[in-house]
């Protein structure tokens, strides 16, 4: 069955620290998609990244970077030099079934608190 | 990016009444929309898949007679919570898919049933 595990429930860091959010997934599909979303206190979901299963290249976007390792079924997210505005709940998600890229199974989320 | 508008953003209703939530894709046609529910401090759980012009597909454990979904046009899907009870209080959020390239989420609706 499809499953996403975010073992870290809450993380607290001080501004400018680097922080890595872990995501481990389970799927029987050979073609699948992985996502990260940010949910600030207002509730909306902010799309951060989508990665397909055939693209294991790591990605960097500004202070954000993602490490996709198929061998360990992990898709970890690192924020470099964290800022207070990064405080939010971060969700990792997996496409629920083949052919339905955007039907998502979400992890339980990691609450990131960045202290000034 | 594409915009998905969800309305209302907050609603308080009395127990036993019905509430309708709208999800609109403003600048693209969405053949598929998804509805999710999120209880406080919990993850988002998929409730149903809404396809334009056909019946919605519900996830296991979701009562289709309680959560009515209508996807009458390529830009609008509605979720009606019928005979709402306090346990239905939750954050409901939709996503609309643009040709399966990417899903765009609405702002969410916080429903409180009193």
Give the assembly state of these chains. Answer: heterodimer
Structural class of chain B: mainly beta
Strand count, sense and barrel status of the largest sheet of chain B are: 7 strands, mixed
Portion of residues within helices of chain A: under 10%
**Pair with the biggest interface:** A-B, 19 and 23 residues
* Inertia-based shape of chain B: globular
Short description:
The complex is a heterodimer of chains A (116) and B (114). With 116 residues, chain A is mainly beta. Chain A is built from no helices and 12 strands.
Topology:
The complex is a heterodimer of chains A (116) and B (114).
Chain A: E1 3-5, E2 10-14, E3 19-21, E4 24-26, E5 33-39, E6 46-52, E7 59-61, E8 64-69, E9 74-79, E10 88-97, E11 100-106, E12 110-115
Chain B: E1 4-7, E2 10-13, E3 19-25, E4 32-38, E5 44-51, E6 57-58, E7 67-73, E8 76-81, E9 90-98, E10 102-105, E11 109-113
Parallel strand pairs in B: 2-11
Antiparallel strand pairs in B: 1-3, 3-8, 4-5, 4-9, 5-6, 7-8, 9-10, 9-11
Report on the architecture of this protein.
The complex is a heterodimer of chains A (116) and B (114). Chain A is mostly beta strands. Chain A has strands at 3-5, 10-14, 19-21, 24-26, 33-39, 46-52, 59-61, 64-69, 74-79, 88-97, 100-106, 110-115. In chain A, strands 2, 5, 6, 10, 11 and 12 form a six-stranded mixed β-sheet that branches. The N and C termini of chain A lie far apart (41 Å). With 114 residues, chain B is an all-beta fold. In chain B, 0% of the residues lie in helices and 55% in strands. Chain B contains no helices and eleven strands. Chain B has strands spanning 4-7, 10-13, 19-25, 32-38, 44-51, 57-58, 67-73, 76-81, 90-98, 102-105, 109-113. In chain B, strands 2, 4, 5, 6, 9, 10 and 11 form a seven-stranded mixed β-sheet that branches. Chain B has a four-stranded antiparallel β-sheet with strand order 1-3-8-7, with no helix packed on it. The A-B interface holds A 37, 42-45, 47, 50, 91, 96, 100-109 and B 1, 32, 34, 36, 42-46, 49, 91, 93, 95, 97, 100, 102-108, 110.
